[in-house]
């Protein structure tokens, strides 16, 4: 039975979507159907299509009582909106259906697990949110909340574990047909931890153990965990709140963390080996992964960040975009990312130049656009005399531009969107220490109407940022202080 609350949301979004022109949305990044979007939820493959649900408030382009929006795609790039999947309409989720995940049950039904939120007034007048885990079962379009919700609450947790910070379940089905789930939580020390739960049928869940403890190393509360096997290792992704920067890692406040290690499945023991940021740009948070039918581990994140949400177009009827789907792999013990190969199908109008001398500003014929896939290799003209700075400027016209600039002497790659049209004094720059090998820096830059994603050195690092520059600013230019040389292959994405 669809509740009144959900029916209203569905009616509202259907009408509102029609008021938004296609050109006012990203071309191949999923954005809110209308209103507000944050985290990806329930990213999964079901009945021959990819499903993406998302944290959603249809009625305003600001965060509000959370619903789950819903879209499907066959190639992870062209998305079709479906009616909202969940609304906050039960006593156990009346203040929000927070983040969660989706799997296919053995009997072919689709199972969603999400965090139900209920506000609790404190004696001092403050309000805390009690968080529990809830289920809904469906057919890929309509979902029935489970009559025994919530299926996990404070009574399932050991003493001292927070009932207020207990959210974002990510489930998966094991090879033996049973189910596992990781959930973010806070122990008594106030930092974060990831809890592991198991189930034989997907409905009856049992607490197993603490999979990983933050111990105040990386931020405080750990949100939106994901845990999976990749190239012989195990990877724990999570999004810590309130991070302190460490060197050039973790500059985002609300950041992202990737822990790579080993996992002993007989004792459910995760042993950490290394840590790194997932994204080194400005706008990326709460990623989730899916295993594709052909065995690729593909990740999509919320291509915004809580600290920079005031960067937006005025009167924008939608807010919030998802990142490109990125295939993950491990090389030299680090997490690498590359745009999914489905993106190659959207390439057209190839333009290529090799060994272009760059000293001062250079523009190249047919190198422009705002929906672009562009590969650059930047070298000093003479390795004995390296250039001091190289910059690529894009989303450029007389007034505006955004840039990536590189100083080989420091090995620092910087993104700067200060002149992207923003009228807000928020973070617009990020510096990132990159590996500069054999006198060459390799960048693959993907531009969509409102974003740039830069894959550095074949995916060793990624820097992501949104920008809301008017679309007429579609210039691209190159600049070197000193003498550099550039190879470029550029495509329009259509
Ligand atoms: C992360 C997050 C989640 C929560 C959701 C609420 O961005 O804070 O922890 O479930 O957003 O919208």
Could you list some keywords that capture this structure?
single chain; 494 residues; mainly beta; Tachylectin-2, Chain A; Jelly Rolls; ten-stranded antiparallel sheet; 31 strands; binds beta-D-fructofuranose
Can you characterise this structure?
The structure is a single chain. This protein has one helix and 31 strands. The chain has two domains: 4-341, Glycosyl hydrolase domain, family 43 (Tachylectin-2, Chain A, 5 Propeller); 344-493, Jelly Rolls (Sandwich), CATH 2.60.120.560. It has 494 residues and is an all-beta fold. It has one helix at 4-17; strands at residues 35-46, 49-57, 67-73, 79-86, 97-104, 110-121, 127-138, 143-145, 166-173, 179-185, 193-199, 205-213, 222-230, 233-240, 257-264, 269-276, 285-291, 297-302, 318-319, 326-331, 334-339, 347-362, 372-380, 389-396, 402-407, 412-416, 429-433, 441-448, 451-456, 461-466, 475-493. The protein is globular, with a radius of gyration of 23 Å. Strands 22, 23, 24, 25, 26, 27, 28, 29, 30 and 31 form a ten-stranded antiparallel beta sheet that branches. A hairpin with a 5-residue loop joins strand 3 and strand 4 (79-86). The structure holds beta-D-fructofuranose (FRU). The site of beta-D-fructofuranose (FRU) has 13 residues, from strand 1, strand 5, strand 9, strand 13 and strand 17.
């Amino acid at each position: 039975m669809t509740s009144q609350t959900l029916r209203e949301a569905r009616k509202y979004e259907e009408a509102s979507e029609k008021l938004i022109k296609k050109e006012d949305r990203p071309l191949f990044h999923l954005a809110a159907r209308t209103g507000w979007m944050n985290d990806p939820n329930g990213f999964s493959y079901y009945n021959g299509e990819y499903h993406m649900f998302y944290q959603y408030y249809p009625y305003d382009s600001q965060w509000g009582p959370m619903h789950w929006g819903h879209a499907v795609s066959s190639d992870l790039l062209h998305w079709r909106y479906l009616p909202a999947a969940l609304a906050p309409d039960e006593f156990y989720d009346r203040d929000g259906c927070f983040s969660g995940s989706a799997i296919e049950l053995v009997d072919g039904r689709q199972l969603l697990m999400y965090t139900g939120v209920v506000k609790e007034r404190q004696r001092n007048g403050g309000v805390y949110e009690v968080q529990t885990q809830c289920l809904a079962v469906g057919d890929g379009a309509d979902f029935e909340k489970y009559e025994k919700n919530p299926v996990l609450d404070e009574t399932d947790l050991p003493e001292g574990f927070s009932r207020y910070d207990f959210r974002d379940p990510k489930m998966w089905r094991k090879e033996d047909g049973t189910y596992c789930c990781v959930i973010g939580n806070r122990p008594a020390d106030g930092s974060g931890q990831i809890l592991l739960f198991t189930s034989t049928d997907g409905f009856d869940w049992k607490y197993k153990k603490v999979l990983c403890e933050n111990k105040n190393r990386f931020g405080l509360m750990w949100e939106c965990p994901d845990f999976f096997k990749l190239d012989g290792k195990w990877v724990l992704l999570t999004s810590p709140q309130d991070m302190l920067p460490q060197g050039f890692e973790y500059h985002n406040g609300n950041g992202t963390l990737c822990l790579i290690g080993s996992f002993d499945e007989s004792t459910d023991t995760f042993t950490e080996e290394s840590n790194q940021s997932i994204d080194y740009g400005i706008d990326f948070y709460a990623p989730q992964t899916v295993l594709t039918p052909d065995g690729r581990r593909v990740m999509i994140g919320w291509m915004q960040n809580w600290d920079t949400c005031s960067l937006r177009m005025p009167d924008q009827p939608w807010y919030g975009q998802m990142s490109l789907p990125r295939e993950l792999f491990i090389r030299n013990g680090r997490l690498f990312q590359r745009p999914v190969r489905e993106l190659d199908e959207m390439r057209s109008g190839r333009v290529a130049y090799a060994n272009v001398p760059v000293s001062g500003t250079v523009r190249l014929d047919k190198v422009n656009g705002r929906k672009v896939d562009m590969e650059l290799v930047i070298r000093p003209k003479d390795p004995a005399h390296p250039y001091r700075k190289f910059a690529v400027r894009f989303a450029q016209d007389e007034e505006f531009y955004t840039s990536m600039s590189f100083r080989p002497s420091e090995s620092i790659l910087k993104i700067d969107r200060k002149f992207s049209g923003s009228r807000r004094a928020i973070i617009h720059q990020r510096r990132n220490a990159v590996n500069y090998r054999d006198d060459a820096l390799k960048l693959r830059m993907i531009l969509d109407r409102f974003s740039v994603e830069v894959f550095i050195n074949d995916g060793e690092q990624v820097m992501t940022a949104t920008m809301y520059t008017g679309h007429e600013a579609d210039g691209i230019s190159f600049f070197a202080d000193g003498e550099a040389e550039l190879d470029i292959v550029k495509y329009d994405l259509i």
